[in-house]
Amino acid sequence: MIKVEDLRKEFKSGVINRRIVKAIDEVSFEIEEGETLGLVGESGCGKSTLSRVMLKLIKADGGKIFFQGKDISNYSFSKMRELRGKMQIIFQHPDSSLSPKKTIENSLIEPLKIHKIYKKGKSEELIKYYLKYVGLTEDILSRYPHQVSGGQIQRVVIARALILNPKFIILDEPTSMLDVSVQAKVIQVLKKAQREFGITYLFISHDIDLVRVVSDKIAIMFNGRIVETLKADSIYEDATHEYTKRLIENFVNF
């Protein structure tokens, strides 16, 4: 479904004392169709930068990106527009994904209009279908983001992504701002959508145990590099890299 080869991204700072930070340092991996790859690492290791580079929201300094067998590395902004519906991202802070000035209904209609697939009547029915799919009722449509809970907003964001029939979704810490009971409901919705629609996920988190539950494989990221990739169900037993072992030990002792 999606593959990256030797992906690189540097950030430069300072005028006199020039400093170069390798946010992504020759990263390569592949995610098969319908699979979930968990990406784990501490804050600042490059996880979020990698996700944005993969979707070409940030320009890479080198390497290649393949989506459904096509090399999209040099796609222009306008060319990428054709793929935006198929390649989605759900962010850590769901409230920042919705305009505070728009009702939930207008926020759900917006992507359909942007991608020129809005049809009055039919689109409203589609919205209601996906609201129900993620466990929400129609009465939420007239509300604004500040009038609903964080868990409800995250499910609205998931519904908005699903409306466009995506093939690949990056989940960037999608449950870290939610309490445990709400986390479980959101994970259930995501796994159901993957099973029924064949969606491929990149699940980013610092929570190894959560990633182990939702993923098929787990890639460990440290200082901009993937240092180890393991099967999710055997990560505790098969980890060999010292950084992976340290993450596991810190998590277990937390």
Please, could you describe this protein's structure?
This protein is an alpha/beta fold. It has one domain (2-253): Rossmann fold (3-Layer(aba) Sandwich), CATH 3.40.50. The protein contains nine helices and ten strands. It has helices at residues 47-54, 77-81, 104-114, 122-133, 150-162, 180-197, 208-214, 235-238, 242-253; strands at residues 2-13, 19-31, 36-40, 62-67, 70-71, 87-90, 168-172, 200-205, 217-222, 225-231. Strands 6-7-8-3-9-10 form a six-stranded mixed beta sheet, sandwiched between helices. Helix 6 (180-197) links the parallel strand 7 (168-172) and strand 8 (200-205). The radius of gyration is 19 Å and the shape is globular. The model has no long low-confidence stretch (mean pLDDT 85).
- The CATH topology name reads Rossmann fold
Give start-end ranges of low-pLDDT stretches.
none
Write down the Rg.
19 Å
The strand count comes to 10
CATH class: Alpha Beta
- Can you write the helix and strand succession as a string? EEEHEEHEHHHEHEHEEHH
Q: Estimate percent helicity.
A: 25-40%
Q: Domains counted in the coordinates: how many?
A: 1
What's the CATH architecture? 3-Layer(aba) Sandwich
Q: What is the mean pLDDT? A: 85
Spatial separation of the terminal alpha carbons: 35 Å
Sheet with most strands: strand arrangement: 6-7-8-3-9-10
- Decide which structural class fits the backbone: alpha/beta
Number of DSSP helices? Answer: 9
- How does the overall form come out from the CA principal axes? globular
What percent strand?
A: 25-35%
**CATH homologous superfamily descriptor:** P-loop containing nucleotide triphosphate hydrolases
Major β-sheet annotation: 6 strands, mixed
